[in-house]
Amino acid sequence: MEVINTIGRRKTAVARIYIQAGAGEITVNKKEFADYFPSEVDRIIVQQPLATVGETSNYDIKVNVMGGGSSGQAEAIRLAIARALCQINPEHRPALKAEGFLTRDSRMVERKKYGHRKARRKFQFSKR
């Protein structure tokens, strides 16, 4: 099997992954997977598509991810892995789609407006 690369995005995080047949090793930005994501929740999020199709130890994955925070990066990686699994085997698509792993979460942070304290929060009104 050749190397397959895909891109996943979430908030401002962008993840490029390179997936190939292997022993199930995941490296993120040239670091060990568990070292890059100390949070157990983020590690579970990244491995969800692999667990859904039962391929947790069949592929080696190299990830380059930039931008955003840890949860946004984890979800960007999840989308990229799900897309790659669909390229490898189209039969995985219904299971991944049912879990919602193939849908790009388009929610972004709303910008701050002038005359406001935050994006929607106004300054406190004072009558006198």
Can you describe what's shown?
The chain has four helices and five strands. A hairpin with a 2-residue loop joins strand 3 and strand 4. The chain has one domain: 2-Layer Sandwich (Ribosomal Protein S5, domain 2). Helix content is about 35%, strand content about 25%. It has a five-stranded mixed β-sheet with strand order 1-2-5-3-4. The chain is of the alpha+beta class and about 130 residues long. The longest helix is centred in the middle third of the chain and has 19 residues, at about 70-90. It has helices at about 35, 40-55, 70-90, 95-100, and strands at about 5-10, 15-20, 25-30, 30, 60-65. The model has no long low-confidence stretch (mean pLDDT about 95). Helix 2 (about 40-55) runs parallel beside helix 3 (about 70-90). The termini are far apart.
Counting structural domains, the number is 1
Could you list the spans in which at least 5 consecutive residues all have pLDDT below 50? Answer: none
Distance between the terminal alpha carbons, to the nearest Å? 73 Å
Q: Structural class of the secondary elements?
A: alpha+beta
Specify the helix fraction band: 25-40%
Task: State the name of the first-level CATH class.
Answer: Alpha Beta
Characterize the overall form.
elongated
Proportion of residues in β-strands: 15-25%
Roughly how many Å is the radius of gyration? 18 Å
Mean pLDDT: 94
Largest sheet: 5 strands, mixed
What order do the helices and strands follow? EEEEHHEHH
* Secondary structure tally: strands: 5
The largest beta-sheet arranges its strands as 1-2-5-3-4
So how many helices?
4
CATH fold-level topology: Ribosomal Protein S5, domain 2
By CATH, the architecture is named 2-Layer Sandwich
